[in-house]
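Batch job 17 of 40 flagged for manual review because the log was empty.
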Amino acid sequence: MDIGYRERKVQEVESDTIACLGRGDISILSALTTQLPDVFTCEILPKLGLWTKLSLAQVSKTYRNTVWSVDGVRSMKPKGLVFKTATRHGNLPAVRALLQSGVNPDDYVAGLHEAGNKPTFTALHIAAGEGHLGVAKALIEAGADVNKQELDDLGRTPLMLAAAAGHTPVIMELIRAGANVNTVTRFSPNRPDAITALMVAVLNGHEACVLALIYAGADVYCLGHRWELLTQSNQTASAGAKRNIVELIRYAASRNFLVLELDSV
């Protein structure tokens, strides 16, 4: 491209911007975003506060694409808060941009209770618990540890959180990525009984999750001495779902030559 042509293009852009501003069609900020995107991204966006950037991303598709670009997220601080927020809301473009900008997918970014609690969950824990399949895939592709345990006395994995909430597609994605279906939570004085993802799915009445976990090799024998909890825990599970789960467990037990006392349901 010769210098004369480049200068003419710059003059055309400047002329278009001035004309738009004169008609009141766009604001100065919009003019910068649409007509001079490099200037907006490199010079203006880094000077805006975090909440201003997040609010700006809600205004239009143009702003959203600019804010949630690799260059757009580089100046965002604190990164952990942005990463947590984007993951919790299932904002896939934001998560991808943050990962490409160098965010570690295995950083602990969120706590069980938001107020004054140290981070104990990774982004994958959040995505799994919320059922954001696309975000979970992006995190896994970026190298997130699918078996990472939370940093509290329980130590749940992303698989356990997905099982608790009934997110079967996320469970299947985690299993494909190498999630251990038989990981147990930690023992502690406050948590005397260790649990597995299968136990969580059973206690919450998620039969599709139970089926996916059993098919992936989950140990059904762990349910033996706690089976009565099925009727005592989640009261929202239908009687039909509970019966189906019983049959799934019976079948899996018979295939493994195990004897479980399931007659209480």
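Reviewer: the log was empty due to a logging misconfiguration, but the result itself is present. Strands lie at 108-110, 121-122. Unflagging and moving on to job 18.
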